Amino acid sequence: MASEEELFASVDALLEEEPQLPPPAERARLREAAGITQARLAVALKTSTQTVKNYENGRSEPKSPRLEAYQRLLKGWAAKYPARTSSSAAPAPVVAPQPEVPETFTGSAAPEQAEVAAPVQAPAALAAPERPARSATSRRPAAKKAAAPAVDPRFPHGPLAVLDGDGSAYGAGGIVLDCPATTIPELVEWTLRESGLGAAKLNRYGKDSDPLIVLTAAAAVKLGLPERLEGHEQRRSLRLPEDHPVVKQVTKAKWQLTQRGFGPWARIYRKAQGRDRQCVQLAILSWDALDERSWPGVADMEPADIARVLGVYATRVITPRGSTAVSGLELMTALRPPTKAVQDPATGNWVSGHNAGSLGTEPMDPAPPEATPEHPVVVNSGWTGGFLNEEAYQWVRPVNTLTDEESLLPFAVGLDLNTAFLAAAARLVVGLSAPDHFHAPAFNPKIPGSWLADLSHIDLDPRLPSPFTPDGSRPTGPAWYQTHTLAYAQELGHDVHPTEAYLRRETGAYLDPWHDRLKNAYVDTLADLGVTKDLTDVEFLAAMEQHKQNDPALAAVLSAIKATVKGGVGKLRERPQGKSYKEGETWPALSRPTWRPDIRAAVISKARVNMHRKLNNMAKMTGLYPLAVLSDCVVYPSPGESPLDFLPYAASGKPQPGAFRLGPTPGLAKLEGVRSMLWAVDLMEQGLNPARHIKGGDAVLDEGE
What's the pTM value of the predicted model, to 2 decimals? Predict the structure, then answer.
């Protein structure tokens, strides 16, 4: 006979077992008796409609903590609607039978999803009697919250999910899906068939964004991938070998990989069937898919927090398809699709035609001075006429130009222009057609292109950088300039007489929608962090000191938006990568219509001109001259540690127009750092740029992946 100790041990083992659910058929009966649809239950459990179906047909079981919440709900329903035990028993009090919502309909979940966006901490919310469940057959539209974004019924669970090793897929808005996949092909099938992930197109002529699945290290290992991707190549160049078991699984399941292969950002696809795309984007966190420079701290966050960061970015910018540089370039195409449907006048059929204002579908050779030295256009033609050198500022003021008064000022203050290159893209007219060559043309500031002119005769104040060269030095002879640079020379009162030019006849503000979307994303994210347009300058500086601590997740989104701007512009002139490249060969980036070094030059030229204009106005208004300029950061000597001590203000207290101003809008300045004047002068004497040490040295527009 068993002892008391053995019996108690057996009973305790039973108590420690996971809670048991009723049979699948009983789960469905209880839900139907309560008048709740599968879609409504899915929203309450923070999962997908398909997962609820799986619970009710026995294909899968919930996991903790959803298991306990589901059990509590079913127990509550069982008490209200007990099953009939015999024909003579009283019928259970069920609601009038109602037609079930079709399985493919998910629109009813949309308004509810916004209302339950906060993660469920306790299952009590599921059984709260104060708020009866809404009937599945109600024709009355649910009350809409003014702040809730519209949810596309095709993608009820948002644009992306972060998959962890236990099969939980964390989506935007706090939703958690159950993913049963154990291989990459199964994951792709689940994503396209059951997940409800994706995003609507950004332009009527564009394409919907493919769903993104982000894999944690545990999820990657579970799916057969190595936890780390090691090799001698640069991290962004690493790929799984073609004979890797996962790559073979993908091929055997008749899926394809893009030419980039299976790397940190892998795209898996099949040929589209009609208008339905079959493509899933993967990002592997432990393979450094999220660069720390663009996404600070995100890779180390919990999966739900990563989903929040990427979800906000996807909603405000675009669903990531690679690095922020890649996403910046993809956003240009998504907002300006190359084609649209047009009617063939001869046949009456609808065919694909050119979308006016876009860059089209075919790559375009640059003019020789706009290309890079290794470009086939240069190598094959033997071009020796020089190149366009429109780059961001990297200038240090000569120490011998400092006055005694400046040297006695105790502080050096750095002002960082908010997304200066984004501000330069606003209303920027660029070329849309191929360049034409002209000899001795009359300069026209309204025509985008590259001009050969001599500006070496222009004498400017040595306490300011020259607006015509990136290093701020005076030009020494004829050189190629972008239209904005020559137009600014005219603005300063000098005649310009180009001897040669490569100009484009068809023009347009190609980057306008790109600028507008990124500006809104930047300003809205700053506002969420407490930095709004209605703040005074004092309040603005206080808010900027705290905004990163207020919400590190949103601060990471802000960093990613800024990186998207710089990376997207830099990607317009992506150079060849890899040690095996030889001059004169083509490289993959040249096959893109968005390989446009002339557009990159136009953005940088306008940004540099805008910077010099403010520097010039500041000197006229305050008598102050900068110590150094690096990209979009300028360092000034100051009598105090705040920019309020030297920025120009009118008698009314308002900032003077034309000079630097504080504020969250792109093009306005924020305080980047404060250092002593002696420290800045010491760096200058060593030939170093104080702005680099204040700002961290991100002057180069990323041309990489």
Answer: 0.80
